[in-house]
Amino acid sequence: MRLTPLIAVLTLAALAGCATREAKKVSVYQREGFETTETYSRLFDAPVAVTCEAARRALLSQGYLIGSQRPDSVAGSKSFQPDGEVHMQITFNIVCLPEGRGGRIATAFVSAIQDRYALKKNSNSASLGVGALGSLSIPVAATDDSLVKVASETIPAGPFYDRFFGLMQRYLEDASEESAPAPLIEPPPMAAPARAASAPAAAAASAPASAAS
Predict the structure, then answer these.
(1) How many whole angstroms from its chain centre is CA 130?
(2) pTM of the model
(3) What are phi and psi of 169, to 5 degrees?
(4) I need a surface site. Which of 16, 18, 94, 181 has the fewest CB within 10 A?
């Protein structure tokens, strides 16, 4: 009977530990604040097609392989190998939507997913017939290596996207400079043509010459 209070305390502690573990399992969605200050989007002073083309050029310039492309969306991926048996892949998904009247400006919504792959080794086995004992399965030295996805995460908003938006802006500025009309060069003023002298003036100019003769 003396152990009853101690058992009750231990039981409460165990229940509290279970509750804490359960809270940790479901705490991911609780961090989604849906704040308007997230930087997964950026407003650009360009139409939808031009904005998405700048995004495509930005991905291509950094070695990303374009997977799909439409006038209002583009997707690309790039592989990394930070370790001998660890592989990483970043996949960009970009959607461009018009803003305001006339669609002269657009908002680019960008999200990047980071996938982590690990190298998995599978040993091969071979069957060997042993007379009346039937067949035995024994392992052999050959192995098949395969990549298995072990983690996937959306890259949080912050400097990563700011750098990408900055590169997009640079390509938009280059495009606007190329499409700008060339300045008009005015031709030099032409000299006014000489005016023919009137008949009385011509006669007066020729009179001294005839008198002298």
Answers:
(1) 60
(2) 0.64
(3) -60, -35
(4) 181
- Specify burial of residue 73 (Cβ count, 10 A radius: 0-12, 13-18, 19+): middle
Q: Are 112 and 160 in contact (CB under 8 A)?
A: yes
Give which of 77, 55, 57 is closest to 65, Cα–Cα.
77
CA distance 151 to 87: 11
Structure tokens at 112: 């990047």
